Amino acid sequence: MSDAAKDRAQPLIVGAGPAGIRAAATLVAAGLRPIVVDEAPACGGQIYRQPLVPDGRDARVRYGSEAPKAERLHREFAGLQGKLDYLPNTLVWNLSDGVADVATNGGHRRLAHDGLILATGAMDRILPVPGWTLPGVFSLGGSQIVLKAQGCVIGSRIVFAGTGPLLYLVAWQYMKAGVKVAAVLDAAPLTAQMAMMKALPGFPAIVLRGTRFIAEMMMKGVAFHYGINKLRFEGTSRIEGVSFEVRGKRRHLACDGAGFGLGLKPETQLADLAGCQFAFNERDRVFLPQTDTARRSSVPGVYLAGDGSGIAGADAAEMSGERAALSLIEDRGLAVDPGRAGKLEKELRKIFAFRNVLEQSFPFPSQWIADLPGDTMVCRCEEIDVSGIRDAADHFGIVEMNRLKAVSRIGMGRCQGRVCGSAAAELLAASTGRPISAVGRLRGQAPVKPLPMSYAAIAPAVTGEAAE
Amino acid sequence: MPLLHRVARQNEVPIGFSLNGKPCEGRRGDTLLSAILTIDERLRPSDFSHEPRAGFCQMSACQDCWVTLISGERVRACSTPLAEGMQVITRAANSAGEPA
């Protein structure tokens, strides 16, 4: 590290997925020593998540076609040890003016930092449907994680429902794991998926891989239904089946496990606490923290990378992680290769254009909102149903999300609206006849995830070094 | 029938724990959620209506899988590694704090 750099606090990277790892490697290469904080016990993020112990399966089985990328990133991060301060099993639960509050190994610390790269990732986007809280219904991402990281499958006869590329990938992975996949139910009509052909020239490998997945599943007898409506998961104390409408006709399928998800949703809570400006994104129907092409947020010294700043996938996450790190390095007055920065931005533009095609192919089924029965649970934590939201909006004349939260308790539970927030916004927009951009978004609140009470009892001093 | 089925680590080292007082066995490398759901078909009752729940996101986001250890400590099952001797309570407590 240079003498000048020694006088300044370390940069902080939140998240050790593809974006965080590339950001860390880039900072280290520039002679900086970042602190990397990650909730997981090992690096990789959700996409390249590692098992808790070796389980006899190789990377090819675990990560499929992405195995070389997963292995490269795991190896790269292992090679950085000693050149950065890595805090696994650690949650950043608040951010304020150059200090991060973290909960780590049963303790609490306050980390001063100079330069912050948020690589917080994403989770499944959900629109509640009847029965989605039944045991045995997992998110698509959850279905995939339990298979790759735990070597467990969510049933012996499984239905996957929702939309998006993950729907097909997870169904195929389960089939390859030897599980009976009864059906894939896609909210998107087949006509929408024809948009994928536009991506064929630019990203042939990805488009053809998806086509191959579907062909292989069809050969194994997996049923495919497109443009489904009025989806419900059925069962008394656990999932026993699904029903749905397709071309006006109701169909039932028996199953003992279901994966459900409608694309992905960025984890933006920390960007909010960092004070980043947000703007409504029409394509994803969500408010996103604003970033320029160099991954600078509206707050000096705060940089945004990976899916946490807008869904673009793991390859883009690596590139935006590196690009964010280059900006941080430049802003510290150190030299960067402008050619490299330009190349990353060019590649990212291509992937973002591809992502636009993907989103056209698998549109979010906001039309499902109107069909939702009033007793459909929206908020898993506080158990607020569709009627609870519609009634609160009607009775109190509510037109904005934070008022809705105050009155209905939606988004006030343990998940802080991570799961229900976008659905609640859709419901409020529909019931007030306003565009979803007009109902606003839930404000971020610390702690961003539940903490044991003992953390609150301690008020440690701010430390500048991650190593104690 | 349990919700989860193992396709790997079937012969991994057994780890003993208890679920609502009943002795159970998981495998080394399990999360607490996997250990419970490879045995049972529910995790906990929901807070208000006591509907059965069994987690959802498996990535520490949805907060649907919090359970209580006998010490009183609350843990998120999907992100807590199973440890030998864990005593887990997943039943709802009544107003006196006794498992219902």
TrEMBL record, chain A:
<dbReference type="InterPro" id="IPR023753">
    <property type="entry name" value="FAD/NAD-binding_dom"/>
</dbReference>
<dbReference type="GO" id="GO:0016491">
    <property type="term" value="F:oxidoreductase activity"/>
</dbReference>
<keyword id="KW-0560">Oxidoreductase</keyword>
<dbReference type="InterPro" id="IPR007419">
    <property type="entry name" value="BFD-like_2Fe2S-bd_dom"/>
</dbReference>
<dbReference type="Pfam" id="PF07992">
    <property type="entry name" value="Pyr_redox_2"/>
</dbReference>
<feature type="domain" description="FAD/NAD(P)-binding">
    <location>
        <begin position="12"/>
        <end position="321"/>
    </location>
</feature>
<dbReference type="InterPro" id="IPR017224">
    <property type="entry name" value="Opine_Oxase_asu/HCN_bsu"/>
</dbReference>
<dbReference type="Pfam" id="PF04324">
    <property type="entry name" value="Fer2_BFD"/>
</dbReference>
<protein>
    <recommendedName>
        <fullName>FAD/NAD(P)-binding oxidoreductase</fullName>
    </recommendedName>
</protein>
<feature type="domain" description="BFD-like [2Fe-2S]-binding">
    <location>
        <begin position="377"/>
        <end position="429"/>
    </location>
</feature>
<dbReference type="InterPro" id="IPR041854">
    <property type="entry name" value="BFD-like_2Fe2S-bd_dom_sf"/>
</dbReference>
<dbReference type="InterPro" id="IPR036188">
    <property type="entry name" value="FAD/NAD-bd_sf"/>
</dbReference>
<dbReference type="InterPro" id="IPR051691">
    <property type="entry name" value="Metab_Enz_Cyan_OpOx_G3PDH"/>
</dbReference>
TrEMBL record, chain B:
<protein>
    <submittedName>
        <fullName>Putative molibdopterin-dependent oxidoreductase YjgC</fullName>
    </submittedName>
</protein>
<dbReference type="InterPro" id="IPR036010">
    <property type="entry name" value="2Fe-2S_ferredoxin-like_sf"/>
</dbReference>
<dbReference type="InterPro" id="IPR042204">
    <property type="entry name" value="2Fe-2S-bd_N"/>
</dbReference>
<keyword id="KW-0560">Oxidoreductase</keyword>
<dbReference type="GO" id="GO:0016491">
    <property type="term" value="F:oxidoreductase activity"/>
</dbReference>
<dbReference type="GO" id="GO:0051536">
    <property type="term" value="F:iron-sulfur cluster binding"/>
</dbReference>
<dbReference type="Pfam" id="PF13510">
    <property type="entry name" value="Fer2_4"/>
</dbReference>
